[in-house]
Amino acid sequence: MLHRALTSICDQEYRSIQVVVIDDDSTRSAADEITATLRDALPRLTVIRQSNQRVAAARNTALDALREKVLAIAFLDSDDYWDPAHIRNAAVSLSRGVDFYFAHQRIEGATTDWFGDRADLLDESRLVPEALGIMQRAGSVATLIVSKCPVQTSSVVFRHALIPQVRFPRALRGCEDQWVWWALLARSSANMYCPEPTVTYGAGGVGGYQHTSFGLVRFLVRRADWIRYRHHLLNKYPLTPGERRLQEKLGGHREAALFSTLHSLRRRIAQQFSWDSHRINSHCKAPRMRRRTGAEVHL
Fold it and tell me: Which of 55, 212, 256, 284 could form a disulfide with 219 if both were Cys (CB 3.0 to 4.6 A apart)?
């Protein structure tokens, strides 16, 4: 997967790129996937290996390794890849004075349109003249992020000077990226996006907390982190009365966490009852087994 992601960086029409790869103790090391051809094509490639500390820590390590004079920052998860025009479109957007750019994306192996059910979030947009079909959005940060956020990590490019010391909160799992997007967008003068998909979101999905099932401990951990994230937004950023619907989202996450807990408890009780019944049946059968065995010995 990493080889495919790096190949897509090599294929970018915009060529002045510094690449930092974080090998977060992957089961397949970065060294196994970075060929000599890739190293020749990416002379500014740096590889850092560290113990597994989850995705937020990996991204922070990459940010720590950047040179001071970096103009903009983009992220690319190892199972995702970019179309050749992706960074070029971002560079055009930043040259127009915006601080935050994101792109439409396709999902590998799926026919769903990522922007499809999020189109209303992009209604307040206008076409940027002579900018390769790029749109500028005028709506608030809250309406963009609160409900069905269209911004995904591998599609984001932002101006480094916006928050030079920006870092992902390591304690969160599943919403650490939106925590950062909100901080960046709240400070950006404007944001642009490309309505055409220039990013492919890999089917694998980076992060052990990304795919969790109802009733599992990981599901509860993720719900708890989302509640914490929403509280942070409510306390940190000024919101209009209409945007206070975040509180409704809080209620939804609390309800999901409660039902998941009850489901987990019910399943554990059922499993314990089944195990206790098995032990009782085994205990009741034991004397009969001993009598049959004794009879066989006597015969």
Answer: 212
Residue type, position 26, single letter: S
Block residue for tokens 């480094």: 160
Burial code (b: 16+ CB inside 10 Å, e: under 16) for 95-132 equals eeebbbbbbbbbbeeeeeebbeebeebbeebeebeebe
Whole-number pLDDT of residue 110: 80
Query: Which residues, at least 6 apart from 70, have a Cβ–Cβ distance to it below 8 Å?
Result: 18, 160
- Once rounded to an integer, what is the mean pLDDT over residues 258-281? 52
Side-chain-side CA neighbours of 279 within 13 Å: the count stands at: 6
Q: Tell me the domain boundaries of the chain.
A: 2-211, 213-299
CATH code that applies to domain 2-211: 3.90.550.10
Confidence of residue 130 (pLDDT cuts 50, 70, 90): confident
pLDDT of residue 289: 38
Q: Tell me: the pLDDT tens digits for 215-241?
A: 556 667 777 777 777 777 777 777 777
Question: SS3 sequence, 73-124?
Answer: EECCCCCCEECCCHHHHHHHHHHCCCCEEEEEEEECCCCCCCCHHHHHHHCC
